[in-house]
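Thread: "does anyone have the structure for this chain?"

Original post by V.I.:
We have the sequence but no experimental structure in hand. Need at least a predicted one for the grant figures.
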Amino acid sequence: MKHLVYVLLSVCIISAEVTANDGSFSLASNCPPSFELTEQGVCRLVTQYQFYDSVQNRGVGGTQTSLPAHRDGFTPAQIDLGRYLFFDPALSKDGSISCASCHQPDKGFSDGLDRSVGVTGEKVGRSAPTLWNVAFLDKFFWDVRASSLEEQAQGPLFDEFEMGNSPEQLLTTLRNNLDYVDMFAQAFPTKPQIELTSVYQALAAFQTSLISLNSRYDRYAHGYHKALNKREIAGLNVFRSFVARCAECHQPPLFTNNQVAVIGSPEPEGRALDIGAEKTFSAPKLRGGFKVPTLRNITKSAPYMHSGRYEKLIDAVKFYNDGRGNSVPKGEKMQLHWHISEPDLTDDELQLIVEFMGTLTDESLTPQVPERVPSGLPPIDQKYQQRIEQQTLTNTKNNNKLNEQRGE
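Reply from O.Q.:
Generated one for you, tokens below.
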């Protein structure tokens, strides 16, 4: 029974774009890998973690712990429609960027920038968080201002500095595209025309298919102990120890508790303090608080923290070892999370943690990027890619300069 999921993964038919003879788009009729099609015609997630039964307040917990509740139950057509929408720049104000511009599959569904770049060509407020395993979350954005994927989708779509669109223009664009009219009819046959709620639902459907639970760590957790080497196992032990306390917030198997934590992580040089969740809840005690991110595919989604302050994973880990409140600005009073202490780990122990986090990489269920989308625009625009590469180069130069100033 332990190998059931891996058998299912190997035999599932990958959802890929199908083009009809007349050149129109036809949506998938099969579920993505790791999902099974039910008698009701919807896709149900299947994972080996479903065989475990453990309390949700797992703390540092064991390796064989269950997953929290998740969202599934979308049709193959709805998931596939969401895939096309996700990669189509037509959803932005000027057709210059898509959801995938800031959430690129090969970059851990992030974009490699400290802070993403929107339609204005300027950086937005925070870095793009990964979308892996969002089906298990009930809080979204760094400041947890959204409680559903549908609500989350509206943020970047209509933010003037991100995708810059308006509900009216988005509907007009989609309703005037005959391919999308046909595709929405396939995915939502009971609705006479394209509605905003259908757009949000399709995007949510696609994002719930982004599952990453088949890493080397997972194989180790399910009983195959040769999946990790001795140093990686040692790193797991440090990670879960009552000294380091990493697992208090980055709880297996999702490696997040999906809660807000005030840790006092630094802003980039010269940038004002981001108050984070204090604004969401009008709560001074959450000043500088942000959602605990998942560590799944963490090696793919640099730079790190809400502001992308750390280019390297080892530097992000060192932050926690440099002492409680080491980066809190002068004059600021933050109610730092109780687990932020001074673990005084050795350099080798810090490196062990980094090596362990490398075992959390699993991109086996990465969806296919459409070769073309209904708008005819490139799914991930080359100009946007060049902009990212230039910004990444600038970030590297700035970080090197800061390190030189600190004598590192």
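V.I.: this helps a lot. The longest strand covers residues 35-37.
O.Q.: and The chain has 14 helices and six strands.
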